[in-house]
Design brief:
The chain is mostly helical. The chain has nine helices and no strands. The protein folds into three domains: 45 residues, Arc Repressor Mutant, subunit A (Orthogonal Bundle), CATH 1.10.10; 43 residues, Arc Repressor Mutant, subunit A (Orthogonal Bundle), CATH 1.10.10; 49 residues, Arc Repressor Mutant, subunit A (Orthogonal Bundle). Helix 1 crosses helix 3, helix 4 packs across helix 6 and helix 5 runs antiparallel to helix 6.
Length: 161
């Protein structure tokens, strides 16, 4: 697929709608992401707003659906609540929607952290430096200190509560 040059003429309204539909056909996008991708693809700002609103009104684009999809995808990849929430904020979702979607996911974050830890590390840490390295790895994945401590404690005896 060829990239558009800045000197090219802006896309027509129909072409902009088709581009938006193609993007949404591949995966869920937040309204902000969709608008950004349309603008990068040569759609003028005013038309971008119209197209995104049209996609939302017709049910093609939904921020709550995007949030639920992204949360489930990132949970499956072993990411924690801090990282997932930050990604949703970057995608332009309001904090209230993020909180609601995170609660609806009903994830046991401590258990997920334990599973993520056990998948990556098979042996106990050799020394304090190794333990710190592991802590930093889990923190970068978005787990809280409480979740990480549960992984360190539960990693050996499988106590997840």
């Amino acid at each position: 697929m060829m990239r558009r040059k800045a000197s090219d003429e802006p896309l027509s309204p129909e072409a902009a709608r088709l581009k938006a539909m193609r993007l949404l056909g591949r995966r869920e996008h937040s309204a902000r992401e969709l608008g950004s991708k349309l603008r990068q693809g040569g759609v003028e700002a005013e038309l971008t707003t119209e197209v995104v609103e049209s996609m939302t009104e017709n049910g093609w684009q939904s921020d709550p659906r995007f949030a639920a999809s992204r949360i489930q995808n990132r949970i499956a990849q072993g990411f924690g609540p801090i990282r997932i929430s930050a990604e949703l904020r970057v995608a332009g979702l309001p904090d209230a929607l993020i909180r609601e979607a995170m609660e609806a996911a009903e994830c046991d974050w401590a258990t997920l952290c334990i599973e993520t830890y056990q998948r990556k590390y098979r042996q106990p840490p050799a020394d304090r430096a190794e333990k710190q390295k592991r802590y930093n790895h889990l923190a970068a994945r978005g787990f809280t200190g409480e979740h990480i401590r549960a992984a360190f404690d539960g990693g050996d005896d499988d106590a997840s509560d």
